[in-house]
């Protein structure tokens, strides 16, 4: 039996019949960088995706997932969402908006359903790893399953 408890993300995947694998890793509160996760799990950076949350001028929250090796280009991100501009939310607002904390924010199972965008690089990998909903836990699944489950728009918004 795994040492971790089922997270909301895992319960949602279970109830949808989506296959996934959970992997635990050691984390440092002061170093929540995704490169560490990839190295610890022994997978290429391109297969580990971070989840970021932005807000539009109108106050709509948007979720962006991209490789830990990339950064968001806010102009491209806004264009992809059909918005004039977007900006990243403050870390202090992350828990209230998503139900997740920094370093444990999953695109799966947030408090509410937000429009989600996944970087087009996801189409080049056979499997993708995202936060399992808590620090020290990653969920690995088929990229197509992540896209369909989150009803994501796939496009280019990386720098």
Describe this structure in words.
This protein is α/β, with parallel strands linked by helices and about 160 residues long. It has a single domain, classed as Alpha-Beta Complex (YbaK protein). About 25% of the residues lie in helices and about 25% in strands. The protein has helices at about 10-15, 35-40, 75-80, 95-100, 145-150, and strands at about 20-25, 50-55, 60-65, 85-90, 115-120, 130, 135-140, 155. A hairpin with a 4-residue loop joins strand 2 and strand 3 (about 60-65). The longest helix has 9 residues, at about 10-15. It is globular. About 35% of the residues are buried.
In short:
The protein is of the alpha/beta class and 159 residues long. It has helices at residues 8-16, 34-41, 74-81, 94-98, 143-150, and strands at residues 21-24, 49-56, 61-67, 86-88, 115-119, 128-131, 137-141, 153-155.
């Amino acid at each position: 039996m795994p040492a971790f408890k089922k997270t909301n993300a895992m319960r949602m995947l279970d109830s949808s019949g989506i296959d996934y694998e959970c992997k635990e890793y050691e984390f440092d509160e002061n170093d929540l960088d995704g490169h560490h996760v990839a190295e610890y799990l022994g997978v290429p950076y391109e297969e580990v995706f971070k989840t970021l949350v932005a807000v539009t001028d109108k106050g709509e929250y948007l979720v962006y997932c991209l490789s830990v090796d990339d950064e968001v280009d806010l102009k491209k991100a806004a264009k992809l969402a059909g918005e004039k501009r977007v900006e990243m939310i403050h870390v202090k607002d992350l828990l209230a908006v998503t139900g997740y904390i920094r370093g444990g924010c999953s695109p799966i199972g947030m408090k509410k359903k937000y429009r989600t965008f996944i970087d087009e690089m996801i189409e080049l990998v056979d499997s993708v790893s995202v936060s399992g909903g808590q620090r020290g836990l990653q969920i690995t699944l088929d990229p197509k399953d992540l896209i369909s489950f989150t009803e994501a728009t796939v496009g280019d918004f990386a720098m």
